[in-house]
Amino acid sequence: MESKVSEGGLNVTLTIRLLMHGKEVGSIIGKKGETVKKMREESGARINISEGNCPERIVTITGPTDAIFKAFAMIAYKFEEDITNSMSNSTATSKPPVTLRLVVPASQCGSLIGKGGSKIKEIRESTGAQVQVAGDMLPNSTERAVTISGTPDAIIQCVKQICVVMLESPPKGATIPYRPKPASTPVIFAGGQAYTIQGQYAIPHPDQLTKLHQLAMQQTPFTPLGQTTPAFPGEKLPLHSSEEAQNLMGQSSGLDASPPASTHELTIPNDLIGCIIGRQGTKINEIRQMSGAQIKIANATEGSSERQITITGTPANISLAQYLINASSPDPDPHGKNTFTA
Q1: φ, ψ (nearest 5 deg) of residue 168
Q2: Count of CB atoms within 10 A of residue 322's CB?
Q3: Which of 55, 275, 325, 341 has the most CB atoms lying inside 10 A of its own CB?
Q4: Which are the contacts of 226, defined by CB distance < 8 A and separation ≥ 6?
Q5: Could you tell me which residue, 36 or 198, shows the higher pLDDT?
Q6: Share of the chain above pLDDT 90, in %
Q7: Could you tell me whether strands 262-269 and 336-338 are parallel, antiparallel, or unpaired per DSSP bridges?
Q8: Residue 236: pLDDT above 50?
Q9: Packed helices 65-87 and 152-168: angle between N→C axes, nearest 10 degrees
Q10: 217: DSSP letter
């Protein structure tokens, strides 16, 4: 969500993300991309559809509020047309509502629901649309699905009200966007969690494999806040060779859990260090737990405007810790240098 103030008042540019199934995306794209081209031209909004052979795709709509509402209207009427066409070939008598799924940062969902559900109730009553906010975050992200269903007109009114709430209550902290998972991705272990590799990042992966690794980590509690323990090259994590571990893995051979540890150094400006540490160290502790890496922040030195952060762990731990530090920092690219230990 971005908003820009111009001299003539508030000129608001919004980005709204929608989650769609392959069939819905096909309907929006149309033959040879004709439908989406027409939607872009007539609404004036930018409409991007995520790549990939995933069962789900993300449709991103960006532009001034008027353009976004036009694009939503065109999508809602297209879906209603699809429902009407499918009903002509079926025996169903009642017409199902049009349904859209928005992807919203979890930090904004509280404002959307309102105290005791007052806001969401008001939106439902004033628009006639059904609105449901998912209780859980979408996998490997800090976003939730918000499902809207009703007539196209009710949906358009509902989207307008949701946009107002989102503008009044911007997201808090860094948002990890939901990325639909491809059919199959490689899995790695780090710090009691399984991760899938997406591009250059390791993304947490909820899986049976995670249970196995958590079982393996039972004897190694997370390091207390503010303390770090040295990780030695070739250090092995304790593993249980219990039946449960073997059943989960589907094999009875011993496991080597951890490649040799290495070290990575980042230099962070002093004015950004607070975002990374968080209130009473909550953020840095969360990053340590999620990444499984040891993270040490050097004390401030007089006359220096920067602080050194040393990350120790496996390459996968370091990659994830670096990603999470970048996500916490308003500076998109703290400059780091590799100093791998022997």
Answers
A1: -75, -25
A2: 21
A3: 325
A4: 281
A5: 36
A6: 36
A7: antiparallel
A8: no
A9: 150
A10: T
